[in-house]
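User: Predict the structure for this protein chain, please.
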Amino acid sequence: MTVKPKYWVLLLSILLGSISPSDAASTPVDPKVLHIINRLSFGPRPGDVQKVESMGVERYIQEQLSPESIPEPQSLTSQLNQLNTLQLNPVALLEHGKTNLPGQKPTQLERKAANKWAKQVLDEAVQARLLEATSSERQLQEVMVDFWYNHFNIDAGKGRDRLWVGAYEQQAIRPYALGRFRDLLGATAHHPAMQYYLDNFQNRADSRPDAKGNIPGLNENYARELMELHTLGVDAGYTQQDVIALARILSGWGFSRPGQQTDNPLGFYFNPKRHDFSDKVFLGHTIKSGGQAQGEEALDILAQSPATARHISYQLAQYFVSDVPPTTLVNNLTQRYLATDGNIREVLNTLFHSREFWDTKNFNAKFKTPYQYAISAVRATGVEVKNTRPISNVLQQLGMPLYRCQTPDGYKNTEDVWLNPDAMNRRLSFVTAIANGNLPLSSIPPKKEQRDKNGTEQRPLQKSPNIRVDAWQLSNTLGDFLSMTTKKVIASSSPQIHSALILGSPEFMRH
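Assistant: Here is the predicted structure, written as structure tokens:
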């Protein structure tokens, strides 16, 4: 059964602002419990609200801030262990299956094999991310992986980064998501995926400037984005001369090629033949002559800058509190960042205990990105996800394909980017399919290489039963959070579409 258009029209009208919903009905669930779950996770799974009510909000916060203390479900661990490419480093991913000598053109068969390998690697990276987002108990870590990946974005659509985005997330983002910002900054700066994406592997200094003072071979792309997006922010007052100085400082940074020896297991390679060893003045600091150490000193300067502290604090406040975060909160987070040498866990702890975070006007006020919406809808059903393709497909349809943001600033998390009628209709189609049990989320998808003796692709190893989502259980999972207006719409509809209306409600579009 499909949902009658009149109900969607009414809910869309509420969402898009043409009808104001009445005050929410009183609810037996503490709104603070719902707020903390919705902001520190991708939404509640069955039993989460009751669990947090039992353990208390403070204990939940501290537990999520220390993800290493939270055991993961065995089913999730088993699924991740089956993804054979997940733990490979960039060198192994790039060199897999290569038999031709350096400089020798690959054959058509070799190109076909390389494309098949690249597709497997990227598919497994997407599968891993979606499995962890939907099923991990370490939800704050997953939320921060989403945050930091967009902050240090890399597009899988660019050349060899289709091989490297998963390794980049596993090696440069995840281990540092709640650690020191300087460590995270360094991990991304050294990773071949970033060096390739922002072209710094082509950045080389020539000791003979031309008549205009330009340095042939100098590539400023990474240096500029490193300051504008990753650290200081666009309005931090740095100059073009600072960009040039940083590009010179980072000249020679790249990744190993065949035949080049490197001690870095992830493939980072410093080429002294491409580096400008001279003294530089960067952001008012004199960096003495040297090799790779000059780059490390520049990263220290950037990570310790008050401008960086403010830029990161603003973005965190925008992500966790409101699209236009209060200045007082940003100031407090900035001070905490500087006082703790950029300790992300401490900054978040301050944020989660701030007056602004707990201001009721910010409850259920952030509009979910397509990623947050899709993950939260799946989590709310409690289904054990074995097939992530339906989630990946809807993210594509909603304009937020995983690892495919083409610009280095990553996907935005503000309402103005994602709230529009077409996108809402696509969301509603997705949750209607979920509510009716029509998405094969718990089916193990067939692998193309699994064919019968006639060459015909085999059916899935396990068929998912077509089971509707129970509306009462769904409401219990989500904590009875609907407004009176939405409840009236649902009450006047057929019971068979109640679950779809809950997941498509204006309230569920927000967190």
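The chain is about 50% helix and 0% strand.
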